[in-house]
Amino acid sequence: MLRLIIYFLLAVASGVASFFITNSTVVNMTTGLSMGLAVPAVEQIMQNREKLRTLWYSLRYRKQSVRISTSYLFKIYVDGKYLLIRGSRWRNQFQPVGGVHKVSPQGSGILADMSVTDDNLIPVDAASYRDLRVRVPGRHLYKFFHWFDSRLGREDSPWREFQEELLASQILPPDEFPHIMHNYLRRDVDPIRWSEWAQAYEILVADIYELVPTPEQTQALRNLASAHNPEVAWVSADQIKRRGIVPGQPPSIEISAHSQRIL
Fold it and tell me: What number is the average pLDDT over the span 12-41?
């Protein structure tokens, strides 16, 4: 961000200076300098567009309380099918393995300094305790995302939900998954929107990971697919896009909207 500001100020200064200089050679030099600085300035804008958008939100919604929910999701893909798991709160719905980030006591202290409060939509229980599902004063949105990007005082691994949802539940054999390898694919940050459900402005954040199984783990996943466990569903990309509907067939399962993030 600092580099962007410097490029921008230099480009503007060079452009303004060209209007007050009468020497044509110097004008050409300042104009060329301004144009030359504009190129890296545009590049910096593209690289920092998320930060700039958040900075704008901090100004635009400074007097609002914004609901933020951050999560991580697993893309588990074997033989052309995606693995989804039955939801713990909405049992008729299937969704990717994953869940909301947790905050450590250190992170809770940092959030308290920003006047961040717990979200009240979902009751706080043993499962949701320290979930990063919060209400952030709009004026602190930029500061909140700067903290989130730092990874200080918050969960920074997708292992917990994988272990809880697939191994502790015995859906997959724990002895085949003493550890996992995964690729980090991307982060989705939805534009701010008004949520009728939350009755507040809302930003949803999701980190997407891809499981990279060993040959033995791939076989364990294939065994799971052939076992027809009612707690999981193996579905195609088209089924995910259609929320579980298969053309010409009666509805059999419901797939969450956020499952499309793993495609």
Answer: 47
Which pLDDT band, with edges at 50, 70 and 90, does 7 fall under?
very low
Q: What's the mean pLDDT when you consider all of the chain?
A: 85
Residues 104 and 40 in one domain: no
Q: Which of 203, 189, 171 is nearest to 76 (CA)?
A: 171
Largest Cα span, the chain:
82
Domain co-membership, 127 together with 15: no
Q: Which residues pair with 82 in a beta bridge?
A: 77, 235
**Which domain range does residue 34 map to?**
2-47
Structural domains of the chain, count? 2
The total of other beta-carbon atoms located within 10 Å of residue 136's CB is 25
pLDDT band at 48 (very low <50, low <70, confident <90, very high): low
- pLDDT of the residue at 223: 98
My answer on whether 133 and 226 are in the same domain is yes
Give the number of other Cβ atoms within 10 Å of residue 99's Cβ.
Answer: 22
Count of CA atoms in the C-beta half-sphere (13 A) of 41:
14
